[in-house]
């Protein structure tokens, strides 16, 4: 725990550094960091807010390299042709790992990163939290996805989430009102960011419980990072472990991750983990998470989630009579593209991706340092078009 103690003490005892971190955090969500500063922040998010360590155990054997050379990649975006090098440069890719049949087909580190660099997941953490729900369900810590979240988090009994099911939270269909706009200081997401900066235990759960409802549970889909904080509280309430410890014991150690990871927590004095963001790990360890998802949640041949978990988690669902390309905190690329049949992906702002294609035994991890926290038009090349091209080239 020494590295964690060091982070906490510095955040408390070094006010100049703490203020610098706060300014960087706000600027990051504003989309106003210069390129080098962006890379520095994304590769050192443990400096920004209190963290817990996700301890690794004995590392698994190194990922093997594929014998065949990596093929040329060509794809089209808005009628223009691009290749692998265009994608890496235009999308400010800091690290990319392509895994085919469990072997490394391509791996590259750019923008000063290395194999031991930790990189921010942002909302890819949501997909990790979703998987921990699957683990808790298989282990019996959670009885059913149709249980109300307040069964495991009594503090939610009298608020907006009273009676909302775990499944509805997984699908972002609680019906609770929420504004996710990252660059708007008045949005719910930015108000919760200020609660993160304040380091007050319990403040975010109180904020979430006090929100109004925009519709009955299950009737509307609304992307909501705060919703994942609720999910994290469910995991911690059901397992009686912190998110970091639960991930360590159930996935990080059994899967043989190479290095420790870190996950933001409410306060240096404890509190709940930030299930929807604030997770940081190395490229290859993200790759092992992707392989776990591609292999239907098995580690060493042993399933850690219920049967067909990832089929449901990685599939579109009907919400309020509308098909939504969102599963249990995994996104679904357009199924009109044949290369994406059965695929799903974890996505984080600033260009973080874990693309999973079980049918093709393929996983692609992309870690990026893009300028804005949301799509801004034609600044980046289409990621799903690139992933489809990789699928086709390695088929």
Can you walk me through this structure?
The structure is a single chain. The chain is of the alpha+beta class and 395 residues long. It has a single domain, classed as Beta-lactamase, CATH 3.40.710. The protein contains 13 helices and 16 strands. The strands form 5 sheets. Strands 1, 6, 7, 8 and 9 form a 5-stranded antiparallel beta sheet that branches. The chain has a 5-stranded antiparallel beta sheet with strand order 5-4-16-15-14, with helices on both faces. Strand 2 and strand 3 form a beta hairpin. Helix 5 (124-139) runs parallel beside helix 9 (225-239) and helix 5 (124-139) crosses helix 10. The longest helix has 16 residues, at 15-30. It is globular, with a radius of gyration of 20 Å. The termini are far apart. The model is unreliable at 1-17 (pLDDT under 50).
Question: What proportion strand?
Answer: 15-25%
Order of helices and strands: HHHEEEHEEEHHHHHHEEEHEEHEEEEEH
Full CATH superfamily name: DD-peptidase/beta-lactamase superfamily
Question: What is the terminal separation in angstroms?
Answer: 44 Å
Defining traits:
single chain, 395 residues, alpha+beta, Beta-lactamase, five-stranded antiparallel beta sheet, 13 helices, disordered N terminus
Task: Please give the structural blueprint.
Blueprint: H1 2-13, H2 15-30, H3 35-42, E1 51-54, E2 74-77, E3 80-83, H4 84-90, E4 93-100, E5 103-109, E6 119-120, H5 124-139, H6 166-170, H7 188-198, H8 203-210, H9 225-239, H10 243-252, E7 261-267, E8 270-273, E9 279-281, H11 283-294, E10 298-299, E11 302-303, H12 309-313, E12 317-319, E13 322-324, E14 344-348, E15 352-357, E16 362-368, H13 383-394
Antiparallel strand pairs: 1-7, 2-3, 4-5, 4-16, 6-9, 7-8, 7-9, 10-11, 12-13, 14-15, 15-16
Helix pairs in contact: 5-9, 5-10
């Amino acid at each position: 725990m020494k590295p964690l103690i060091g982070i906490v003490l510095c955040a408390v005892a070094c006010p100049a550094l703490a203020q610098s971190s706060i300014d960087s955090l706000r600027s990051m969500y504003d989309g106003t960091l210069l390129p080098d500063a962006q890379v520095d922040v994304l590769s050192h998010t443990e400096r920004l807010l209190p963290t817990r360590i996700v301890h690794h155990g004995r590392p698994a054997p190194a990922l093997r390299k594929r014998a065949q050379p990596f093929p040329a990649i060509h794809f089209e975006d808005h009628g223009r042709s691009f290749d692998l090098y265009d994608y890496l440069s235009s999308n400010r890719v800091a690290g990319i790992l392509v895994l085919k049949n469990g072997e490394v087909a391509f791996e590259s580190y750019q923008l000063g990163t290395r194999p031991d660099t930790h990189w921010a997941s942002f909302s890819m953490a949501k997909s990790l939290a979703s998987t921990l729900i699957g683990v808790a369900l298989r282990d019996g810590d959670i009885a059913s996805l149709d249980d109300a979240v307040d069964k495991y988090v009594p503090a939610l009994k009298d608020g907006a989430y009273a009676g909302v099911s775990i499944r509805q939270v997984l699908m972002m269909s609680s019906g609770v009102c929420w504004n996710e706009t990252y660059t708007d200081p008045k949005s719910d997401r930015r108000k919760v960011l200020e609660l993160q900066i304040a380091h007050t235990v319990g403040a975010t759960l109180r904020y979430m419980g006090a929100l109004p409802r925009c519709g009955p549970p299950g009737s509307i889909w609304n992307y909501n990072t705060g919703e994942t904080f609720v999910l994290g509280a469910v995991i911690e309430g059901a397992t009686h472990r912190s998110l970091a410890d639960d991930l360590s014991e159930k996935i990080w150690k059994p899967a043989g991750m190479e290095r420790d990871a870190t996950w933001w927590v409410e306060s240096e004095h404890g509190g709940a983990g930030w299930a929807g963001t604030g997770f940081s790990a190395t490229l290859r360890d993200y790759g092992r998470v992707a392989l776990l998802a591609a292999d239907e949640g098995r580690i060493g041949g042993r399933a850690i989630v219920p049967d067909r978990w990832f089929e449901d988690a990685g599939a579109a669902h009907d919400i309020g009579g509308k098909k939504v390309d969102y599963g249990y905190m995994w996104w679904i690329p357009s199924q009109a593209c044949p290369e994406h049949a059965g695929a799903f992906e974890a996505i984080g702002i600033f260009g973080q991706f874990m693309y999973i294609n079980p049918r093709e035994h393929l996983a692609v991890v992309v870690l990026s340092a893009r300028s804005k926290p949301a799509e801004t038009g034609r600044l980046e090349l289409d990621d799903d078009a690139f992933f489809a091209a990789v699928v086709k080239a390695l088929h």
